[in-house]
Amino acid sequence: MKKTTTPNRVRAVTGRIAQTIPVLFGVVVISFLLTRALPGDPAAYFAGAAASEESIQQIRVALGLDKSLPQQFLIYLQDLFQGDLGQSISTGQPVATDLANRLPASLELTLSALLISCGIAIPLGVLAATRPGSAVDHICRVLVTAGVSLPTFFTGILLIYIFYYLLGVAPSPLGRLDFIYIEPDHVTGFYLVDAAIAGDWETWVAALKQLVLPSITLALFTLAPIARMTRAAMLSALSSDYIRTARASGLSDKKILYTHAFRNALLPIVTTLGMVFSFTLGANVLVEKVFAWPGIGSYAVEALVVSDYAAVQGFVLAMAVLFVILNLVIDLMYTAIDPRIGFDSQ
Amino acid sequence: MLTINNLAVSFQTRRGEITAVKNLSLTLDKGEVLGIVGESGSGKSVTSYAILRVLDKGGKISAGDIHYSGIDLCEISEREIRDIRGREISMIFQNPRAALNPIRQVGKQLEDVLRRHAQASAQDAKEKAIEALKSVKIRDAESRYHAYPFELSGGMCQRVVIAMALACNPQLLIADEPTTGLDITTQKTVMDLIRDLIRARNMSSILITHDLGLASQYCDRIMVMKDGEIVEEGIPSKLFTKPSHPYTRKLVNATPRPDDSVRCLLADEIKSPEPQYAVTEEVLLDVKNLSKTFKGKNGDVHAVKDISFQILKGQSLGLVGESGSGKSTTAEMLVRLIDPSSGEIQFEGENLSTIPSKVFATHLRRRDIQMVFQDATDSLNPRHTAQDTISEPLRRLAKMRGKTLIIRVKELARLVGLPEHLLHRFPHQLSGGQKARVGIARAIALNPKLLILDEPTAALDVSIQAIVLNLLADLREKLGMSYLFVSHDLHVVKLLCDKVIVMRNGGIVEAGDCEDIMSAPRHEYTKELLAAAPAPPKRKDVTELA
Amino acid sequence: MTAISDNAAPTDTGIDNPSSHRDGPFSHIAYVLRENPVTLLAFLLFLFIVGCALFGPYLVPYDPLKTSAAHALQPPSADHWFGTDSVGRDVFSRVVVATRLDLSISIAAVGLSFVIGSILGGIAGYWGGWIDSVLNRLLDTIMAFPLFVLAMGIVAAMGNTIENIIYATAIINIPFYARLVRAEVNIRRDAGFVRAAKLAGNTDLRVLIMHIFPNTLPPMMVQISLNMGWAILNAAGLSFIGLGVRPPTPEWGIMVAEGANFIVSGEWWLAVFPGLWLMIAVFTFNLLGDGLRDIFDPRKRT
Q1: Which CATH architecture fits A103-305?
Q2: Mutation for C interface: A154, A172, A236, most C CBs within 10 A
Q3: Would the CB atoms of B143 and A2 count as touching at under 8 Å?
Q4: In this complex, which of B18, B267, B375 lies closest to C192 when CB atoms are compared?
Q5: Coil, helix or strand at residue B169
Q6: What CATH architecture applies to the domain C36-53+90-301?
Q7: ipTM
Q8: Fold for domain B283-545?
Q9: Dist CA A1 CA A12 (whole Å)
Q10: Which of B94, B186, B41, B158 is nearest to B488 (CA)?
Q11: What is the pTM of this model?
Q12: Smallest CA–CA separation between B401 and chain C, in Å?
């Protein structure tokens, strides 16, 4: 049986990777359309308020705005392939460079939030599922519902008020590192990792302190979907026939819970993670603004304020590409867990 | 070996505590096979779960004791009973595919059991697991070891479940409807396998089933359960000859026997005269070279291959086959829900196969061909009352409205024996038999000339099946309809049909008069089907014995 | 005629078929509310919020736009329950009045995505084939964006107005409805009652609209309720970063954003009250969604 299954699975995996190509293309088309749908005349923006009609026309030609839509799309594609996302008006830098510089900050925040959230939500969901209807279950339900109802920007502000203003235990909510510390040497761009590599534990602790509040804010928001799905998936796994078979065979509770129920429950949980990533990346923007976190989210918000559209579009595209990659990783994880993938696709 | 005294099992539900099993006592000797027979809701499965204490959430043993080899299974700790499960007493379940973990190799699942009960070490577990697979006659056991349940057929999955149950050489095997959902021929091989294995190991066994015929064939002793209580107990032949409890009598009557007519299924006090059908010589339906090919991902699937047959006006034709035989596809084509790939459907001389199924819904012939569906629950719109459901064809195809509509619906309800006050109920407020009646009323609302019955009793208990079959016979007599009766069960088909067609792999293997085929089947496959069907003693023989 | 012995009421043992119950929908709702007082609370909160949206503007003690330099940055008191903001406006009045705007935005957005999503999903789920593939590709592309980020992009591109906030929120919600309806329609496409409806003379379109679609409504209600909360969060989030609603219009997101500047100096009431109000509104819809799920399908509670 195994012999026939393996090529199918390889085909399923390559098929899944190939599937990202049309999606990426769609993403590019949409972000191009968003660029084109700009209100007013982009050329006039770039030329500035004092520009003459002539110089606006010049810029229009320079930007290629006088060409037909398909031509413009081709130019847009060409620029993309060269990593050119245009110039940011506010920073004067190429948007691609800005994004690359700020991406690690966003990723560090997002990933640590996800770690916290999975680390709490999955055990909580399992606990609730093994005792449905109990106090743990009800508390879990109310807590996670409250968590998802908290606007992230509000949670952030509340946490700042409590831990910074009232208790004074948190550092001032301004960025990734207090100004008295020097940034660790750039290796990965993740301060925690870089500081650890450099062996600079003082900076490491300082960076961690800055990271705690924003990542908890973000994690609170994503607790609910993960915990709910874990609970639901565990409940449905625990009530399936194969669990009864396992019980009737005398297997231990631990074996039943982990080898049989949890591994089956992981499938829907992993699927939910995709949605959770979407929420996290979106909420990330708000959290970065609240904590003045120098990631790509706050970059986009600053750009929005000054109508720096190239920067905003670059940001949207970058986020989409990031998300497509994350989804791909999730689906590949799914394929690794579920032997039926590849079989169904016949 | 196993003694149960005054067992009661109750469930905590939102309506308070409900007793599923009460006052149940039984004994089981070494080497004995005991059958527990009952209809749905009788508490027979709950009893078996109670023995191993694997009741669903909310269920508990509220009274009584269960002694196994001197141990009270109700008293010992969870840890101790875990050592008994699978080692001393094991179970096999209905729906074998769901009974296996879908994402774990079957060999590993076997190993889990072996290792748990110290029947194998890490080194020889795999070897022992393969051995266990071989013992249930799985060919190519080495490679099946790596298979996942979805890669195996239903019958093969049940073998794996049996292998798991018997892996640690238990003394008692509890089989809970082990063949539900399997084809008749597979059912026979699985049941024979179980019987041979438990005989060879001198084990005891409890077989839980709804099928009195099956139980009579494989059990030494049978207990009949109703509403959580045992109503009668005895050896199979005694139950069939001298059933003492009224319920057993009803159940015995309702179980179709080889020599039955449709009225035999009813209790004496409600028996009506045998129906007289008027079969004409006029051809109603003429099917010529009908084929259906589906596009599959691995090439074409030939569901129905070039079949031809006729149905006369007033005649009833049975279409018999196992799953995958193409019988349902044929029915769907004839009722014009799907389009045939080729061939003709001549209905009263008019070729209907050229009319696309998409527009047939509003075609004039729509009212002439109707269907009763397999699962009554699934065939009723959950948001429509019985009245809405029965009115639907009248409103749409006969444009009936207002008072005439209500009168007709009530008339139909009377015709199918549905009390008028139930017309305002929703499907979930009706019992299985009542839902079947609603479905039949809808199908006959427009006086169709051809009624297609797609396993109309497959989801029903036998006692209700008996009533529904008789109702269908009455309607045929009264309304002069022709039937195409699709079923997997030759014995049931025989009760209602004059002619029968046996299908396999999309083709017709044998066709002819019901009596002839039942008494002298010519084709090997028909013989196999007849031999595989559980055979309760003939009514004639039993009467003679008595 | 044969005897009618199966016409007794369905056996109510409830063991083989726990969902079998003979009582009407109301006693079921009563049961759910009794079992789960949280749902009852959600219903009450819902009525309260709708009340605020309808009558709030007529009931509040102050004009939400009237500034008063003399009363700037006052902490909560008997006169100003939620205090006053930096230009002396009454926070309580602003918070209550904002209910209507925030609720309107999310109702409009959710309504729009419900209608469009249902149509798209219904067609794709019923007929399948290439329509289904095209729709799936389209939805995949929308879902390929982190949804809040896409909404940001849309509003930035189309212009910074309330209508565009509604459109953006609707667009990012469409996939949820389209997918749900598609799945719900798809599993019923070959159900017995659908085939029976065709035999009764219903055309495909009629089958879809009259028979299948009403059966998809219960899960849709749950989705609507959960989405309402999410739509409110989205709209508030967009205004928080300066998109959509503009000051001085009272709106929860903007009020939190304005209050954020004062939090580090201890004037907490500016941000906390609108934030709490917003949270309660979202919380209500989420709880309500859970409650509706219990009412429609007691087994599928998550």
Answers
A1: Orthogonal Bundle (1.10)
A2: A154
A3: yes
A4: B375
A5: coil
A6: Orthogonal Bundle (1.10)
A7: 0.84
A8: Rossmann fold (3.40.50)
A9: 17
A10: B186
A11: 0.83
A12: 15
